[in-house]
Design brief:
Blueprint lengths: L2 H8 L6 E5 L5 H9 L5 E3 L1 H15 L14 E4 L7 E4 L10 H16 L4 E3 L11 H4 L6 E3 L12 H6 L2 H10 L3 E5 L1 H6 L17 E6 L8 H11 L3 E6 L3 H19 L2
Parallel strand pairs: 1-2, 1-4, 5-6, 7-8, 8-9
Antiparallel strand pairs: 3-4, 3-5
Helix pairs in contact: 1-2
Length: about 260
């Protein structure tokens, strides 16, 4: 659901090598990266591990320094901007429909990616089942970075991210109690792929669908998708101005944190 936000940060010119782990889930991301003329390589997970190891050898890092314990969407590697390598591992859409499976899979991918990473930028909010993730991996050599608002709190979910943080989300929920759904472009594009999330909409008394415009224009059918859902459930679309501040600030923090870590004596 954060594919657009991920695309926006992967256009960063500081990234010298961008590797996307090959899977069915990466196809749409790859299309968006190509639309932005962002060079990248799609390869298997094992090959990604090999490529990062070779990058370390070229930059003089010891094999010992690659041994990490400890995931997901974005792996930041190497201690200077001249050698910044990012590995992207996109997980399945709809993992949140089963909280136990979500936790199991996210934790599994953290363990896999931490074995060859200096830092991992996790593109998930708290999502209830992940609320203890930070403390569960506290003390591991591979540092985890999270989506944080301007107060340093991990955002609740992708809607809080799109609105600019938890407080903006809570204020909106408090001030407008007639909103049944919040749609970002990715939610609007995939709502029919997640029918269990919407099966009860016909029974709710709320009649608004909030169309959250963050200014990211990678999904061309945003308005049409929102209108289709609104018609299906007899609701009224209302526009909201979103923000990319959380994703930009969180990515900047993750990048800086990895570089500072590798430059520590």
């Amino acid at each position: 659901m954060l594919e657009d936000e991920l695309t926006s940060i992967l256009t960063d010119s500081d990234i010298k090598q961008l590797i996307v782990v090959d899977s069915a889930e990466q196809d749409s991301l790859a299309r968006k990266l190509r639309s932005q003329n962002r060079p990248f390589l799609v390869t298997s997970f094992d090959k990604a591990v090999t490529l990062t190891a070779k990058s370390r050898q070229r930059t003089g890092l010891s094999e010992h320094s690659t041994q990490r314990r400890g995931f997901l969407s974005q792996l930041l590697r190497k201690g200077s901007l001249d050698d910044l390598v990012v590995v992207v591992n996109v997980l399945k859409l709809g993992l949140h429909l089963d909280s136990r499976y979500l936790k199991k899979e996210v934790y599994r991918q953290i363990e896999r990616m931490a074995s060859f990473s200096d830092g991992i930028f996790l593109l998930y909010g708290i999502c209830d089942t992940l609320s203890t993730l930070e403390q569960d991996f506290n003390g591991d050599a591979c540092r985890l970075f999270f989506l944080e608002d301007d107060k340093g709190a991990t955002v609740d979910d992708c809607i809080a991210l799109a609105l600019g943080g938890n407080q903006a989300y809570w204020d909106l929920l408090t001030n407008d109690k007639d909103i049944a759904l919040f749609f970002t472009p990715m939610w609007a594009a995939h709502w029919q792929d997640l029918p269990d999330d919407f099966s009860l909409l016909k029974y709710v008394r709320f009649k608004k669908i909030a169309k959250v415009d963050t200014g990211l224009l990678y999904e061309s059918d945003f308005e049409a998708n929102v209108n289709e859902c609104a018609r299906r459930f007899c609701m009224r679309p209302v526009p909201l101005t979103g923000s990319t501040s959380v994703i930009r600030q969180s990515y900047s923090k993750a990048k800086s944190g990895v570089i500072e870590k590798e430059n520590d004596p």
